Task: structure prediction
Amino acid sequence: NESIKENIELARKQQKAEVQLQAAAKNNPYLTEASVIQLKKYAEELQNISTTGDEELLPMMSQLAAAGRNQAEIQDIMSAALDLSASGMMSMESAVSALNGTLQGNAGTLGRQIAGLKDSTAEELKSGKAIEIIRKQFDGMSESISAQTGGWQKYKNSIGDFKEVLGSGW
Result:
């Protein structure tokens, strides 16, 4: 019985995350139904190269969609945030929030922690310079950490995906 409840709960969490993304996209002129499908696939791809499940990534994508970000910006932020969080500098949620803030011209915490950002102008930040710097500096870190230590988490993510399907009634 406990296993069935767990399967149902995982399926609900996944479904809620997907519905949140769809709802946020409806209010975003830069996202279409096709964008939502591609973002869901991208979340699965990120899950496959990291230790973070797509049910955790999708709500963050929803927040970015609600903030008016387009598909490319969301994907760039999520990739950079995954690598940045793998470095241990900050949580995934904090990394997403900080990187989103840079696209508004605010270096914030990242400006104090990442040398190349301190002297960036607001215009450079708005054009994505911070994301570029983070991606170059921390490129592949999430995948590397996952390969070295993430075997158990990847297994759990796979089991979680299977349970999501079971809980949804196929």
Q: What stands out?
A: The chain has a mean pLDDT of 84. The longest helix spans residues 2-26.
